[in-house]
Amino acid sequence: MKMLQQTSIEQARKRIEPYIKRTPLEKSTALSDRVGTNVYVKYELFQKTGSFKVRGAFNKLLSLSEEERANGVVAVSGGNHAQAVAFASRVLGADAVIVMPDNTPQNYVDATRGYGATVDLQPSIAAAFEKIDDYKAAGRSFVHPFDDEVVMAGQGTLGLEILEDCPEVTDVIVSIGGGGLMGGVSTAIKSKRPEVRIWGVETLGADAMAQALEAGKPVTLPAITSIAKTLGAPAVSETTLELAQKNLESVTVVTDAEAVETLNFIAERLKVITEPAASCTLAAAEKVKINFNSNSNVVLIFCGGNTSLSDISHYLQNTK
Q1: Residue 127 shares a structural domain with residue 191
Q2: Rounded distance, CA 12 to CA 129, Å?
Q3: Bridge partners of 120?
Q4: What is the pLDDT of residue 108?
Q5: In what helix (H) or strand (E) does residue 257 lie, and over which residues does it extend?
Q6: What is the tens place of the pLDDT at every residue in 173-230?
Q7: 195 with 241, same domain?
Q8: How far apart are CA 112 and CA 116, in angstroms?
Q9: Domain containing 238 — which CATH number?
């Protein structure tokens, strides 16, 4: 796959603009006080379907020919990518099949079906990816959750909005699953403002990028043990690893307990319910705050908010 280019992100922005929300970016006094510097939040959890994923999904589907869309699409996801592809397919009139691991939270399965997609449950995320070849052979276009330049370009449009809404930004903290959001956002920001530092974050048990950076090559996790299922890519790709090596200051790995504690704090003080995959950005900010000063302007990307009340109850009971 060719390396992601800034021009592709600019083109994606024009292409998807009629279909997505421009989500707010605001300074948070509570988070600024906690971290000890100026902290802003990019509220991408208010995006359609509750996460950033629709940006890439729309960009991919809009880049397909009419014939390709008529033949249908297929995607693999245990989380937000499923809903994004299902929603974009419904809006654009394409038939969608989403292959999901059978441990996917029921609210994700229900929402994906609610958007009109057919759900194919498989025993594991690895088995789900293996099933894709059958659907591709039947003529469906595969919408990869992260290892696709077109999908990453769509996710990168979020970075353009950060630069416009917070031109004084010095640091951005972004969650990493497979690395598509990180790759898109870091490319968008670094291409225009190379001095801005990008910090990655993962949760322990879903830390494929941290392990890949240490090994110098993609590493396949034997299982996803973190509660942050939306960060649960079994491995990053060669492309997203290369973008991480090029654009990131570091990848901080936080525990599930730390992600849940910050989720609870955010809910109490900012009045929004995030996913652990989003709240972990605050936990990471506290771990790297030695790199900030009183003049720093740090943006946390709250990438998703598809958390049910039963999920929160489970988190609180199992991460003490």
Answers
A1: no
A2: 26
A3: 99
A4: 85
A5: helix 256-270
A6: 999 999 999 999 999 999 999 999 999 999 999 999 999 999 999 999 988 889 888 8
A7: yes
A8: 7
A9: 3.40.50.1100
Over residues 273-293, the pLDDT tens digits come to 999 999 999 999 999 999 999
The pLDDT value given to residue 227: 87
159 and 241 share one domain:
yes
First-to-final CA distance of the chain: 43
Our count of domains for the chain comes to 2
CA 85 to chain CA centroid, Å, is 14
Exposure string of 161-200, with b = 16+ CB inside 10 Å and e = fewer, is bbbebbeebbbbbbbbbbbbbbbbbbbbbbbeeeebbbbb
Do 310 and 257 share a structural domain? yes
| Within-domain flag for 1 | no
* Domain of 63, in residue numbers: 54-142
User: Domain end: 142, 159, 190, which one?
Assistant: 142
Q: Amino acid letter at 133? A: D
Question: Are 286 and 211 found together in one domain?
Answer: yes
Residues 173 and 237 in one domain: yes
Tens of pLDDT, residues 104-162: 888 889 999 999 999 999 998 778 889 999 999 999 999 999 999 999 999 999 999 99
Distance CA 238, CA 52 (A): 22
Number of residues in the chain: 320
- How far from the centroid of its chain's Cα atoms is residue 144's Cα? 13
Residue 68: C-alpha distances to residues 129, 173, 197 (Å): 20, 36, 39
Angle subtended at Cα 59 by Cα 71 and Cα 178, rounded to the nearest 5 degrees:
100
**Do 77 and 11 fall within a single domain?**
no
Distances, alpha carbon 222 to alpha carbons 18, 73, 124, 176, in Å = 40, 28, 11, 18
CA angle 16, 240, 126 (to 5 degrees): 95
Instruction: Identify the helix (H) or strand (E) that includes residue 46.
Output: none
pTM of the model: 0.95
Shared domain for 23 and 64, answered yes or no, is no
